[in-house]
Here is the input.
Amino acid sequence: MTLAAETYDELREIAARYPQARSGLLPMLHLVQSVEGRVTPEGIHACAEVLGLTPAEVSGVATFYTMYKRHPVGTHHVGVCTNTLCAVMGGDEIFACLREKLEVGNDETTADAPGLQSITLEHIECNAACDYAPVVMVNWEFFDNQTPESASQLVDDLREGREVVASRGARITSWREAERVLAGFEDGLVDEGPAAGPASVVGLELARERGWAAPADVHGSADVPEEPSEAVEEADTRRAESETIAEEASDD
Amino acid sequence: MSDVTLKIDGADVTVPEGTLVIRAAEQVGIEIPRFCDHPLLAPVGACRQCLVDIPDAGNGRGFPKPQASCTIPVAEGMVVETQNSTAVKAQHGIMEFLLVNHPLDCPVCDKGGECPLQNQAMSHGQGETRFEGTKRTFPKPINLSPNVLLDRERCIVCQRCTRFAAEIPGDPGIALIQRGAQQQIGIAEDKPFSSYFSGNVIQICPVGALTSDDYRFRARPFDLVSTPSVAEHDACGAAIRIDHRRGKVMRRLAGNDPEVNEEWISDKDRFGFRYAVRDRLTSPMIREDGELRPASWLEAVAVAAAGLAAAGSVGVLPGGRLTLEDAKAYATFARDTLRTPHIDFRSRPLSEEETEFLRSRVAGTSVTYADLDAADHVVLVGLEPEDEAGTLFLRLRKANKAGLRITTLSPYASEGSRKLGAEVVLTAPGAEKDALSQVNGVTDASVILVGERLATSQGAYSAAADLADRTGARLAWVPRRAGDRGAVEAGLLPGEGGLDADGIVRAGLDALLVAGVDPDDTADPDAFLAALDRAGFVVSLEQRVTAVTERADVVLPVATASEKAGTFVTWEGRRRPFEKVFDKPAAYSDAEVLGHITTSLVEPASAASGVETNTASSSAEGDRVGLDTPPPPSLREGAPSLGASGRASSPDDLTRSPSGSGGSTDEGGFHLATWHLMLDNGTLQSGDKALAATARPAFVRIPAALHEQLGDVVTITGDRGSWTLPALPAELAEGTIWVPTNSFGRGVWADLASPGSTVSVEGAK
Amino acid sequence: MTDTLTPVLTANWGDERAWTLPAYAEQGGYDALDVALGMAPEDVQTMVKDSGLRGRGGAGFPTGVKWGFLPPPDPENPKPRYLVVNADESEPGTCKDIPLMMASPHTLVEGVIISSYAIRAERAFIYVRGEVLHVIRRLQAAVREAYAAGHLGTNIHGSGYDLDLVVHAGAGAYICGEETALLDSLEGRRGQPRLRPPFPAVAGLYASPTVINNAESIASVPAIVKNGADWFAGMGTEKSAGVGIFSLSGHVKKPGQYEAPLGITLRKLIELAGGVREGHELKFWTPGGSSTPLFTQEHLDVTLDFEGVQAAGSMLGTRALQIFDDSVCVVRAVLRWTEFYKHESCGKCTPCREGTWWLVQVLERLEKGDGKPEDLDLLLDQCDNILGRSFCALGDGATSPITSSIQYFRDEYLAHLEQGGCPFDPATSTAWAESK
Here is the structure.
């Protein structure tokens, strides 16, 4: 089965974003996954055709990156961070728990069961959320500060098709829809979720509590001047003010 | 570029600026161990085996850590230590890592005995490993192509093969796949590695990871005898090495000749050698009561001599597989023994215009591969290097990557042209003359390369000559067969009042002497066969059973290239002498056989002794029997120039050429463009199954609009027949379709259409 | 004296809908762009150079100096210039760029525009790791908003300057944080490091002059432009100027992001974070991710600036402070990191590819108690054969946890052999261990 004409059009659209079409290959492979549920030989041929590469060259790229899957991925992809810090903080236990619960090994997908969504379970490397350890990712959305119990509930909800909302992110759609966003096609969910989780602002809140700030409080003013020249003046003024404050502070 | 002096292991070395340390070391005989490094591939620094200590980078400061000498350029005053404790520790460390996952199965490995890993592990390793763990294993082996196999656990992922494929022929059909410790060489799931040059990856693999289906498990390197030779499959003169055991070729490898093929050869040159053992003629034969029967050399030669002597008129068609020595023997034989002017080496469509062109513009000239490197512009006309001249293709591609501009006047924008970075001027067959008059940017530093296909394009050779004369550009003719250029040098063209090959076929001469000619290659195969039937007496000098031997009155077996010494002349005009590989007692070169016939004609009674003598001692001297007769007059004398003699083509000759129009033809048909794919049904490829399996699938190329209309299978009908074939859309000259010459049936000229004619194309019938 | 914590990049993270353009503009967002566009590009470059900003991705190379490596435009052979933002944050322990881009993507976008202007780039790319969906959404939307508001595209703010910016999602490869591997990846290839020279400044993306900077570095630029080079240089230490985000994770009471002047100590940071987990003591920590040699209790007062950390035998790296208390087995931690390097080794060079394969096997048997004391020397020798021999810094990084842990905890390795296994109970180190 070759890909649909619309998919070819979108592949070309991705390639056209770049000065050199080949730069589009990574997002193009994300799109292939969103359409095919994995990187299929047909998808490889389509990318090769659009970019004027050999299928071998595309395969070389597709097999280099861990987000590209050669086997069908479930409705949802659940990644448990088991890099050192998360592992120590309980990631190992969470992964073992989910493995047992879902009866799958690493990078395997649950067997089809009527009325249940399938899940692909994988242990993943550090996902840059160490201050929320242990971390679980669902379709590459953050689920922070997990425990075996919370993770177990999470996969139950996913399997049963109940609404699940990321700790810092949007409500969960599906792995394929997530892959489409990675291909550069927005899904309208950007405004869901908070700006930052609690750990992200722990230092900020402490600073506010204690009245600490950088010498110029660059983000403090609400009435921002429209004209650039005024902005400069305003900045200068604020710097002068903050310098005064700093001097006062150092007097303490 | 200025020179730089540095110190390597205490020795001063002066090399050009920009030289890599590893190359500089070679110049003073210091061997730094290496795997990924290859002088003809871009440096990659992957294997790290060539680490050296550089205590002074030339600025008084050293590198804190060992450096890869394959990627670091020399600097004035640099101090390099390749054997101090730092360097040795680093090299041992890398070697140990390489062997961690290597199976160490040298005793059962084809590479054992000639393996850079094995050798360098001995010279630069510790002898014992500290690794006690589990080795990486893979199911073995996998087919990268029908002919190239990969044993992944032996691979050290140096990337020589993938770099070769991408950089040299431009066929990146193998690639690194996976990552980290699982990284391996691979292909796309459903797409085997396809390259006319795929065998080179086996040869440059520094371990036993890549093997050929052909040679795998067939021999040990130390049991083989190696003889350098020259490839006989095209006019490029690639240096090869023939490895043989007990009279049998086990494999062929690329020789290293920087002036010609560097270190690369085509797969045809490498894997095409079984023709020499299949369907071979084993003894002379003579026709008796309509049937061929084996005969002694004495008898057969006597019959041949008698038959030729009795004939009133004899035509000689020696074909294109000859060495220069054989060609000269034919020239002498025709002129002095048979006293016939009817001789022509060409065994494919030809023209009177070409005859003159070869005499006046090709014989005695020289344009070399190096001249192509130095050129500012190379114009290709009627020539598809990737298919027709593999070595030339690689050299042109390399030159293009270094900046050479290439223009090709071609009926379709082929993959080969794309790989050459060539600007394609779409030119319908027959329209080359006009197209040549419009080529821009040709100067006295340019080179025009014309192919033998121009014989079917009226005025094209002359237009090429005009272009060269007008601009001062140099001109060279690139034929397809190894003996073609030598035949031109030997003067195997019609003499005064002589008939060319087409004329000989038409004329109904009394007798024909035919050597390496496949009738199906000629302009009118049926006419050729009819001429054989019609001739009162036919002598065939052949290697194998062919349509000619089946019709001959006397069949005299001759030696293949590996059974005789000789010289091929490349398209450049370069002499490529080679030695005899196999000393087979009854294998006579064409020249020897002609010598026997001559002897028999001159003194019939003594013929027997002459034959027996040569049979008994087929020495180097014996090989030259045919040359014992006086050499032919100098080529220049024998070949009046076009200008001097003013021999113009007769109107009758011109009718054989197609019209020069690039548009669709009057009848609404299509111009038939054609050339031979490198791997096709050619005689010298028969029997090499793995090679044949790597041939590109043959397709007809038709205009995209037509493809849209007719689909993937079309029926083409010409004046000689009809073919229903798979078709692909392509960018073609207007009103043109392209069909591979010899990939279907008996070939285009026998089954489909006459040269220069038009064909019709319809949906599949 | 500068305050202990100095929120600059993090200052607006708590704001309502901070990721949107209106919210960012309300806090003075894109004012710095006007300031920059009112200056000559060279002057913006000089300003960044004078600020003392050093690369926040780990290497600490002065950002303005890096920009200065671009060859002057060649009228004979005009080549486009590119700015590429390295937002492939994957170094274990590092978690600063991701929250920054999620909370305030416009800070980065504005930084990209100003930096591109400064180096006269006509195209810019944000290469963000693929495994952070919501961050990518926020970046995509921010770029879309910026185009709509005239901050990107042609004739930005009427200045005549044009810039296009593409958000590019990676696909899972730690090595792409290495800048030349990132370029190959951005060109649609396998993310394997390139030979240098040529350096990216001369022949980077598409063989054109290219600057590659870490996301935090580029995000720091608007504040520098707005407040001046002296303002930035006035914070931090003499050679390690300005502020940076310190990411505390692991066994502290309040893990999270702490933005402070460079030169703060871990002692101070742990104090701010409420101390190490109750009833436990600090055992070892990484100053800048797993590729930086481990520190212990004895390094609590090392000043966390480039010079201070280096002098103490490690690297400031990405200020990824992973805190491990005494419940953690160092051998287990090091083995897991080594497995990570093995998994992420790109495979290009022998020592990294084969070395990490082998290291894991030796560490595995040590952890199980199956090893021999000599294995420690074997490990150190393997590391010696990798360090400085591999093609890029990934191989070097792989050796850091091993050599440093053997340096500080040799006895703990030996204890595994003596006891025939790991003396630690992994359950005691989990986040929920205390509450159970």
In short: Chain A has three domains: 5-62, 76-175, 213-251. Chain A touches chain C through 100 residues (CB under 8 Å). Chain A has a mean pLDDT of 89.
